[in-house]
Specification:
It is built from four helices and three strands. The protein is globular. The protein has about 100 residues and is an alpha+beta fold. The two termini are about 25 Å apart. A hairpin with a 7-residue loop joins strand 2 and strand 3. A three-stranded antiparallel β-sheet has the order 1-3-2. The protein has one domain (about 10-100): Winged helix-like DNA-binding domain superfamily/Winged helix DNA-binding domain (Arc Repressor Mutant, subunit A, Orthogonal Bundle).
């Protein structure tokens, strides 16, 4: 949910690129998020082959809480915020190199 900005409507393909996930992996996750009321999925008006994703009001509320959850995880793991950010950056670099 952090990959979708608050007022953003995003194509599933672009969301997959941001997360380094293919549509076969992403689609079931999006269906679950939609069932729980966090996102909406609808066909693009310009190209009906494309599915657009956006956060619902409930999804935006939950999204605002996620940074606090990340901070709590780093506290529970007894690592600093900087170390947590380093791990995230390393994982992002790894994923970029794997999918290019």
């Amino acid at each position: 949910m952090l990959a979708i900005e608050e007022d953003e409507q995003l194509m599933v393909k672009d969301l997959g690129n941001r997360l380094y996930l293919d549509s076969g992996t992403l689609t079931p996750l999006l269906k679950k998020l939609e069932e729980k009321g966090y996102i909406t999925r609808e066909r693009s008006t310009q190209d009906e082959r494309q599915m657009m994703v956006s956060l619902t009001k409930h999804g935006q509320e939950v999204r605002q809480q996620l940074p606090c959850i990340s901070e709590q995880i780093s506290l529970d793991m007894q690592i600093t915020k900087e170390q947590f950010e380093q791990v995230k950056d390393i994982l992002k670099s790894f994923l970029k190199s794997e999918f290019q």
